[in-house]
Automatic annotation (TrEMBL):
Record organism: Cudoniella acicularis
GO cellular component: cytoplasm
Domain N-acetyltransferase: start-end pairs: 66-279
Highest taxon in the source lineage: Eukaryota
Alphabetically ordered keywords of this record: Acyltransferase, Transferase
MF-aspect GO terms: aralkylamine N-acetyltransferase activity
InterPro entries, A to Z: Acyl_CoA_acyltransferase (IPR016181), GNAT_dom (IPR000182), SNAT-like (IPR051635)
Protein name: N-acetyltransferase domain-containing protein
Region (Disordered): 1-45
Coiled coil: none
Length: 285
């Protein structure tokens, strides 16, 4: 298994996490498109990024209008394209099977909460109308099947995660059981543990051409706010290279020292974010 953490250089952002809403329609400056009725996919929770936290693209003259939503199995190809673009070392990328396992286990119809732990930050693009460039554009999915302009939702960054019973990221928690998709998978201590009280972040990534403009900060702040508000775990844990430690500390993570995880030959630091107590969480929300 490989390390897949934090491949971006983002600026500090003093602004609070964006508020939640239920649709990406307000990304556009024009009238909102109604949400189609009878859609087979259940309603998902979205975060619309406020204007003062939006970003200019190097490859397109217009502003990005990003929003954040849970990842699903339909985002698999976009996630793989993002991993390939964000991590120059193939050994640090999340494999297709690993991402597939986490996203499929998070399918709304499968009963587990693994998918609720995986978020993506997207922007809406109408193909052919701009010179917008992104490695994930080819894999982008339609925003809504009823949109006549063919607008697609392009992945800019993601957080891929699972639960673990360990207080820090370990080789076991970063792995996955190879028989996960069999009819009768064997019990395993590898990968997602639904009863765990720690979320281990397997991959935090932003497309290279969109790095350095605060996208990672916005995504991580929204992620922390959502997991804190859900009250399903006690902490977040990840491993980071030494040059990323300070960046995570600005988000509230604590450096716990050298990690025992040996992904990519080791040399990582354990970073942990302790969630607020229930009382403080209630006041926070």
């Amino acid at each position: 298994m490989t390390p897949n953490l934090s491949s971006f250089e983002d600026q500090k952002s003093p602004t609070p996490p964006p508020t939640f809403t239920d649709s990406p329609n307000r990304m556009s400056s024009g009238p909102s498109s109604p949400v189609p009725t009878g859609s087979p996919e259940p309603q998902r929770q979205f975060v619309i990024v406020p204007p003062d936290q939006q970003f200019h693209s190097r490859s397109a003259p217009s502003n990005l209008h990003p929003y954040i939503r849970p990842l699903t199995i339909s985002d698999l190809e976009s996630c793989i394209a993002l991993e390939n673009a964000a991590f120059t070392d193939p050994g640090e990328r999340a494999t297709r099977e690993k991402v597939r396992q986490q996203l499929k286990n998070g399918d709304f119809n499968m009963g587990t909460k693994c998918g609720e732990l995986c978020l993506g930050i997207f922007t809406t693009v109408v193909p052919g109308t701009t010179d917008f460039k992104a490695e994930t554009l080819a894999a982008a999915r339609p925003v809504e099947t009823s949109r006549k302009n063919g607008a697609v939702s392009v992945l800019l960054g993601h957080v891929v995660a699972a639960k673990t019973e360990a207080p820090v990221a370990t080789d076991e928690s970063m792995d996955y059981p190879r028989d996960w998709n069999s009819e009768h998978p064997k019990p395993s201590n590898l990968g997602h543990q639904e009863q765990g009280r720690t979320i281990v972040l397997h991959s935090v990534a932003v497309l290279p051409r969109f790095q350095g403009r605060g996208i990672g900060q916005v995504l991580m702040k929204a992620y922390i706010a959502q997991m804190n508000g859900a009250g399903i775990v006690d902490r977040l844990a990840l491993i980071a290279h030494d040059h990323k430690v300070t960046w995570y500390e600005t988000l509230g993570f604590t450096n716990k020292g050298s990690s025992k995880a040996q992904f990519g030959g080791g040399g990582w630091f354990d970073m942990v974010y302790e969630m607020k107590p229930i009382e403080a969480r209630a006041r926070y929300g």
